[in-house]
Task: inverse folding
């Protein structure tokens, strides 16, 4: 058996193994309603219960708006779908960089060079303001 035949046989068996794995995963979830994250309803409910038992991590940073940019994507084959991401980069006094995709309203409100207090909840953007302007719930 020459090298090309061996490679073809290897690729064939590899494809069979991958197909089997995909089939098993699909079959185990067939008929179950899945969330956008790919969880079954039971898995998602369990995840929410676990998250609700822990206190959220709230962090405050003195920061400056370092950069603003946006990405525009067009997806879809037959029906085009336009996705616009508004990205804002913050730098803290400790030179730590945070980059978040924010709403268009936040994007328009924030100015490059603007200083304030960056509020993160569980590592995600929650607010940016002058300290007393930060909205706490």
Result:
């Amino acid at each position: 058996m020459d090298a090309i035949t061996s490679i073809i046989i290897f690729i064939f068996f590899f494809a069979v193994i991958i197909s089997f794995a995909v089939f098993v995963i699909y079959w185990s979830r067939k008929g179950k309603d899945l969330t956008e994250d790919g969880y079954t309803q039971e898995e998602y409910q369990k995840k929410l219960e676990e998250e609700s038992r822990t206190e959220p991590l709230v962090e405050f940073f003195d920061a400056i708006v370092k950069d603003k940019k946006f990405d525009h994507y067009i997806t879809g084959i037959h029906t085009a779908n336009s996705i616009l991401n508004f990205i804002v980069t913050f730098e803290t006094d400790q030179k730590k960089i945070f980059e978040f995709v924010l709403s268009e309203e936040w994007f328009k409100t924030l100015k490059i060079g603007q200083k304030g207090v960056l509020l993160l909840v569980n590592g995600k953007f929650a607010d940016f303001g002058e300290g007393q302007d930060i909205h706490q719930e």
